[in-house]
């Protein structure tokens, strides 16, 4: 398989793992891996086919990248935006001391933009109303069983996310085996049927793009925001409806937990960059206080 390569010199210092953190679904993610040699491996579905991208940052700041597969050139073309080159925080003002401190601690934070809706949609739907552990397990298993092996001389176990066609072909017992309940698999199949149209959301961006995603039954405000944050680096797409985010924002900014309405009020001065505030707080290590038992991990295989 032929290899294509490219070098890119970003006009800003890079924090690769920080920028790509929203894309990584746990340490065992079969589609994104940081290896011991300072390289990052990423797989994707593109309009030109599946592809594998690997890159590393050299001592002089230059990014050396190689790619394989039908989507190789698409991935290389999108490398700058993947690493935050399209992110623009012009006009951002920290209205809270906690945000100002978090921003100083993470001066290299930039928002990634993959340009691909489908690859962000599948794990986002899997994360609906279940624990992180459950969602990541289902993601690994769907990729392993229904995603293609990553093109090129890649590390063992690297896979391309399952395509819309692959998702439509998953049988009921296979969904059950992967631990995906009826509601989430119905949403995934519905999205797979119109996946080519959903890619337009990344072109529209903003609220218009999120509204297009919400036309799919089962994709609401939370899921659309999770996709938008990754597919087009939407700086204003807050994950309203999240179990943890309102409490995190509340404790960090006003010293008490909030609901979605309260979070919307506190973050209002930051529009149209409200999600950037959440990323700064997360990067700074803020989290909601943990009280009581954790949510139980359900075993859909036994249902």
UniProtKB/TrEMBL annotation:
GO terms for biological process: base-excision repair, AP site formation; DNA alkylation repair. GO terms for cellular component: cytoplasm; protein-DNA complex. Transmembrane segments: none annotated. The keyword DNA damage applies. Signal peptide: none annotated. Coiled coil: none annotated. Keywords: DNA damage, DNA repair. GO terms for molecular function: alkylated DNA binding; DNA-3-methyladenine glycosylase activity; DNA-7-methylguanine glycosylase activity. This is 3-methyladenine DNA glycosylase/8-oxoguanine DNA glycosylase. It comes from Saccharomonospora glauca K62.
């Amino acid at each position: 398989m032929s290899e294509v390569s490219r070098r890119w010199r970003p006009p800003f210092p890079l924090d690769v793992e920080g920028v790509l953190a929203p894309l990584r679904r746990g340490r065992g993610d079969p589609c994104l891996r940081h290896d011991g040699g300072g390289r990052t491996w990423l797989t994707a579905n593109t309009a030109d086919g599946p592809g594998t991208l690997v890159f590393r940052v050299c001592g002089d700041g230059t990014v050396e990248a190689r790619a394989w597969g039908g989507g190789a050139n698409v991935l290389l073309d999108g490398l700058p935006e993947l690493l935050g080159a399209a992110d623009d925080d012009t006009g951002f003002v920290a209205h809270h001391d906690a945000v100002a401190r978090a921003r100083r601690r993470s001066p290299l934070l930039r928002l990634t933009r993959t340009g691909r809706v489908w690859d962000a949609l599948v794990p986002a739907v899997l994360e609906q109303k279940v624990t992180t552990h459950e969602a990541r397990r289902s993601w690994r298993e769907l990729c392993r069983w229904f995603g293609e092996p990553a093109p090129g001389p890649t590390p063992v176990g690297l896979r391309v996310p399952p395509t819309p066609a692959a998702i439509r072909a998953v049988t009921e017992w296979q969904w059950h085996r992967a631990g995906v309940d009826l509601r989430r698999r119905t949403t995934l199949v519905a999205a797979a049927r119109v996946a080519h149209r959903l890619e337009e959301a990344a072109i529209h961006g903003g609220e218009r793009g999120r509204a297009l995603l919400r036309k799919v039954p089962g994709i609401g405000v939370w899921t659309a925001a999770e996709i938008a944050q990754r597919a087009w680096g939407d700086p204003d797409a807050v994950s309203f409806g999240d179990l943890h985010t309102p409490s995190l924002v509340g404790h960090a900014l006003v010293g008490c937990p909030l609901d979605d309405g309260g979070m919307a009020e506190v973050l209002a001065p930051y529009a149209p960059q409200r999600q950037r505030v959440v990323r700064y707080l997360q990067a700074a290590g803020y989290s909601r206080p943990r009280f009581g038992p954790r949510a139980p991990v359900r075993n859909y295989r036994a249902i």
